[in-house]
Design brief:
The chain is an alpha/beta fold and 282 residues long. It contains 12 helices and 8 strands. It starts with a helix and ends with a helix.
């Protein structure tokens, strides 16, 4: 269980992978994991489609990480299409595979789901899902250094975060961010709000121009001036942009470690080369 690793007090280093896109082969993901395990992550998390369409793959990849690689797997699980019956079935399968860790998420409305179905979902917030599984699993949750877009203010968001912790969350994985100062301010606000749950810093290196748009759109993360300059400088040179993006992420990592963060979670995008470069640098 991830709780055993947290209890050692060591700084946590973890990775996130995602199931294959429809036309891709799951073996490609297994191959990427085989390569990534050389960086000795404390755990690897596996994403879950908002509508649960790839739940079988999330389960299979989590099992591969746990049973074939001997690494803790953190299986993401989202609410929009989740009924209590489905949850029971899914968690039974997890137990059969020996999986013990879940990242409980509300999830966003899947494109093919009606507003009515989304609004009438059984588990309204991540905290409702947390309460339903916390007796049987180690449960992690998400947090947002620059607030969740649905929250009016960061203070409201942190109040709601406390509800998730009260429901049973034992670790928080942060949304990706590019400005460490924003993360430090968030840690400070959590501390003032009485939150002492371990918070892992989410880092995603920018390696392509296309990614800049998708990542900012997906995460709401602000881009600090030095990163804007860098993207501008290398926008016509993909190889240099990739190098500079990884260097920027490494600088973020080193600064976070200097500030004594509890752990670093790399959004590794199924790319072993990025994971190796990121974790090798001191
Ligand atoms: P919640 O914690 O439920 O919060 C959602 C909003 O509701 C926030 O504004 C919060 O302040 C508010 N809120 C919470 N509780 C209450 C309450 N009791 N009363 C009123 N307001 C409340 N998506 C996927 O589809 N698959 C994934 O695998 C996935 N992995 C992710 C991993 C990480 C680390 C992160 C940061 C996000 C991930 N997401 C994933 C995206 C996530 O599903 C979305 O960000 C989603 O919009 C919110 O999920 P949550 O669990 O943070 O929601």
């Amino acid at each position: 269980m991830i709780s055993d690793i947290l209890n050692t007090g060591k700084t946590i280093f973890s990775l996130e992978v995602f199931p294959p896109k429809k036309t891709d082969d799951i073996d490609l993901v297994y191959h990427a994991i085989d390569e990534m395990k050389t960086v000795n992550p404390d755990f690897i998390s596996v994403t879950y489609g908002a509508g649960g369409s790839n739940s079988k793959e999330t389960l299979a990849i989590s099992s591969y990480i746990h049973n074939n690689c001997g690494i803790e797997a953190l299986s993401h699980l989202t609410c929009p299409a989740l009924t209590p019956e489905h949850l029971l079935d899914y968690t039974s399968k997890m137990k059969e595979y020996g999986l013990t860790n879940i990242l409980a998420l509300r999830g966003d409305k899947p494109r093919d789901m009606s507003d009515d179905n989304f609004n009438n979902r059984h588990f309204k917030y991540a905290s409702d899902l947390v309460a339903a599984i916390k007796d049987d699993f180690f449960v992690a949750g998400a947090c947002y250094p620059e607030k969740h877009p649905d929250s009016a203010t960061i203070y409201d968001d942190i109040e709601n975060l406390k509800k998730k912790i009260d429901a049973g969350v034992q670790m928080l994985n942060s949304q990706l961010f590019f400005d460490n100062q924003k993360f430090y301010r968030f840690l400070d606000l959590c501390d003032k709000a009485g939150i002492d749950t371990p918070i892992l810093a989410g880092i995603m290196p920018i390696t392509t121009l296309r990614q800049v748009v998708t990542m900012v759109d997906m995460s709401n993360a602000s881009i600090p001036a030095d990163l804007v300059l860098l993207i501008d400088k290398y926008r016509d040179n993909p190889a240099d942009l990739r190098k500079a993006g990884i260097e920027f992420a490494i600088k973020q990592k080193l600064d976070l470690l200097k500030h004594g963060v509890r752990g670093i979670h790399l959004y590794a995008m199924n790319k072993p080369d990025i994971a190796k470069e990121f974790f090798a640098a001191h």
